[in-house]
Amino acid sequence: MFRGQLRQLKFELEDGMAIVGLGRISVYEPRGNYQMILEYAEPRGVGALQIAFEQLKDKLAKEGLFEPGHKLPLPVLPQKIGVITSPSGAVIQDILHVLNRRFNNMAVDIFPVRVQGDRAIEEISHAVMLTNGCSDIDVLIIARGGGSLEDLAAFNSEPVARAIFASRIAIISAVGHETDFSIADFVSDVRAPTPSAAAEMVVPVKHELKTHCVELHHRSRRAMIRIIENQHNHLNQLQRAMVHPSQKIQDLQLRTDDLFQRLLRTMASYMDRQQVRLTHAHKVLLTNNPMVYFSKRIARVDLLRYRLQQSLNKIISEKKEGLKTLSAVLKAINPAVLLERGYSITRTLPRRRVLTDAYTIEKGQLLEIQLAKGSLDVMVTHKKKQAESQDKD
Amino acid sequence: MPKISFEKALGQLEKIVEDLESGELSLEKALKKFEEGMKMSQFCTQKLDESEKKISLLMEQADGTITKRPFDESVIKSDKGS
Question: Pick from A109, A130, A219: which is nearest to B60 by CB?
């Protein structure tokens, strides 16, 4: 086959394989060979098998063998695992290996069967029935490795399908390659893509489970301790709150005393403060007493009056003094005094003009001479210059 | 003690732990649940170690009886590291 068509083949060409093909015969001239060039090939018999497969699948599906409702749940922790498979080969090894890794003390009963060929169907169905009779097995794995549709034929048979369906023990089927889906896979309670996957599904990881259990154990203890602690605290609280009545009375008494003391103190300090305020106000009031104001004013007025008086007196006495002086002076220049000393006042007659200058009168003028005592009427006989005394008649 | 599955016991233990942690139980109930929880916890850990590892090959004889034979484990490498 040419490479392109080879790629399109749904199966691998193997030596010794029986195939049905479509092609032509040609001659390769350089070597003188006859060649068969196939354009299409399929494994012999696969057509029939495929059809049979589809038919059985439809039939059983219609009967409801594949219904999810019929599927049994897998036990979380199986007591014993039954394995129906070939006793030799990689499949059983893989399964046991994985089981051992996940749960090292798991019990396993292996039911050896042929997994292909004529007797396979009978052996597999029988094994399923047999295991159902074992009271301690609670889960089954039916497994076989990859192969052609022919190889897997037993797992696509009706007897095996019905045996699986009738099983009261949960069955995991791991048949063929990951991409193979057999009828056994459809009927089983769980389908595993590979035998190793089946082993993983069937058993939990022991140490994980153990750790989980231990953790739950610890959590319980911790939670319990916490609950007890809480109850304890609650009790303590209540106990503390429960006070003996006499104690209560005492407490109240103390409180009352305390409050009373505080009341006294507060009152005292309040009174003090008020007292201070009062004293202060009083002082202020006194200092600003209108009477004081008035008396001050009055004092001032008195003082001013006094000073006024004093000033007045002073002025008066000064004036008096002044007057006295002037009086004395006046007295001194009183013409009467002059007259006493011998001086006289000469006046003209009739006009009685006082004379000081002799030149102003003529001879024969009539004059009056006033003396200290009496006066003389005279006539001028002669006049002289300067301070010469006048001639009298 | 009635035969209870590991699964059930584990489930009960989980529930008990939840109840205890919720803190809403009375003291009496809590104590009772705690006791039960301890029993379940013990049972579970026991169960895990209980099963004795035995890998047997079963063969049906011609007369219908079944014989057990220890399966040859020499071919299996036990992986202690995992």
Answer: A130
